[in-house]
Amino acid sequence: MSKFEILKKEEFVPNFYKLDISVPTIARKAKAGQFILVMVDERSEKIPLTLIDWDKEKGTISFIVQELGLSTSKMAFMEEGDSFYSIVGPLGEPAYLENFGTVVVSGGCYGVGATYPIAKRLKELGNHVITIIEAKNENLLYYEEEFKTVSDEVILVTTDGSKGERGHIYDVLEHMIESQQRKIDHIKVIGCNVMMSKVSKLTKEKGAIPTYATVTTIMVDGTGMCGSCRLSYDGKTKFACVDGPEFNAHKIDWEEIIHVRNTLYISEETLSLQNFSPECRSLAKYQEKSREEETS
Ligand SMILES: Cc1cc2nc3c(=O)[nH]c(=O)nc-3n(C[C@H](O)[C@H](O)[C@H](O)COP(=O)(O)OP(=O)(O)OC[C@H]3O[C@@H](n4cnc5c(N)ncnc54)[C@H](O)[C@@H]3O)c2cc1C
Ligand code: FES
Questions:
Q1: Ligand 2 within 6 A of 138 CB?
Q2: Per residue in 81-96, pLDDT tens?
Q3: Complex ipTM, two decimals?
Q4: CATH 3.40.50.80 for domain 102-262
């Protein structure tokens, strides 16, 4: 078996892939809430992906990737037996986890998978775990069965109402808070920054329920040196890669993350994906093409 080899790859809903990789050094140390930096090939950028599972005995780690731009599209083309160029981790601080009482664990997009190890650990710590999973429609909902094994309740929510509640995580949360059926002691949220900022605003207004969000900032080196993942937090500068990625959501300057930090490279991201031509149907072909371009 070669280093960073894909042992198993599964597309369980369109554009979402679960990959199992052999990396014993990371599997031995991983904790819920941590992430890895992955390079597909020697020309790729490093992208952060959350560890969703690991097996210390077998030395394997798992992550779920949502196909979005160039790097994640390259991953979508990889097959079992292919190897990544590099994987570094585990990085970041583990999530803040203890026996809080009743905890709502919520995730949308890639965050559905990313919340799984957090829900699992919170359940082990004796919490009453309510999981909310959000997707655009029923075809994009995933991990429902897995969450049932680590949650006391699983609530599904789809934007179009095709399965579960209609709306978004914050709509479900608002209803839960207002109905006062159960006191919520702590909330975790992972997904796109806009959704997390709305959850944060809601829970701040509705009695400042402790809410922790995993920020999705651009990361480059993952060591706190390059500054690309910086955010303003409680009036101070923090680096998501070393101080986070999970933070008290009520202290985050969401406007800065959404409108300034994460829009810096949009034109480059769009261009690089356009150059990843559709006829290039495998990673091998892509790499060959890149090398030809380099030498021509
Ligand atoms: C701590 C953390 C954990 C994450 N975990 C997961 C995960 O488990 N699964 C998953 O599918 N996605 C995860 N992401 C998001 C993932 O890193 C981006 O979707 C990915 O980098 C996109 O790269 P791309 O080349 O495919 O797309 P691009 O077209 O390059 O980018 C698409 C969007 O992704 C974001 N992005 C791009 N480059 C980076 C970067 N280097 N670092 C962070 N964000 C970037 C930007 O918002 C950008 O607009 C995580 C992000 C962070 C910060
Ligand atoms: S990724 Fe460079 S400082 Fe965080």
A1: no
A2: 999 999 999 999 999 9
A3: 0.93
A4: yes
